[in-house]
Specification:
Layout lengths: L12 H17 L7 H15 L3 H12 L3 H14 L2 H19 L8 H12 L5 H7 L2 H10 L2 H38 L1
Helix pairs in contact: 1-2, 1-5, 3-5, 4-5, 8-9
Amino acid sequence: MAEQNTNTNLITAKDIENALLEVLNKAIRRKFKIDSKFIKDHLSYITRLQSAKEPEKYIRYKARQLMSDEVSYNRRIKYIHGHYSEELREKLEKLYKLYYELSQEEEKDEISEIDASEIIKDHSRSNLDQTEIILDYPRSNLEQTETNLGPSLQIINSEDKINARVKEATEAMYQRFIESTQQTLNSIK
């Protein structure tokens, strides 16, 4: 992960991560349920940022996507004023201001086509990349299953195994994610 911002003119991925953690901390302290959409979404944002190969490029891309102009920034600010209480609203305003300022900064280096593809791939994932989990399933096992079973059972059996693995992996990753987030939130208190 990138280092904390030491130059006040440049916003780093670490600045965004810290602002996201502050939002989560405030939301949890305001008794948002850990499985609420708000908490899950913000946890997902942190996870994607932390797992990005190049967090600085990734967060710049996300900032431009979220806050492409002043109109989109103002729309988000107006929304949070109507939906969130004072302290949480302040944390969200800080986060959105960072995103907006980052989106307006001049690009130092152009993002390569490969990096852009990686960002798009990261963005197109849901909380967990189920496609990767499915593709990770050994092909040889699928081929053996197809040869050993009748035509009507082979697809169902393969799908059942894949779905079971996806569910198992999803639950394990979610649990690890919750534990690491709790540790992170505890460390910033």
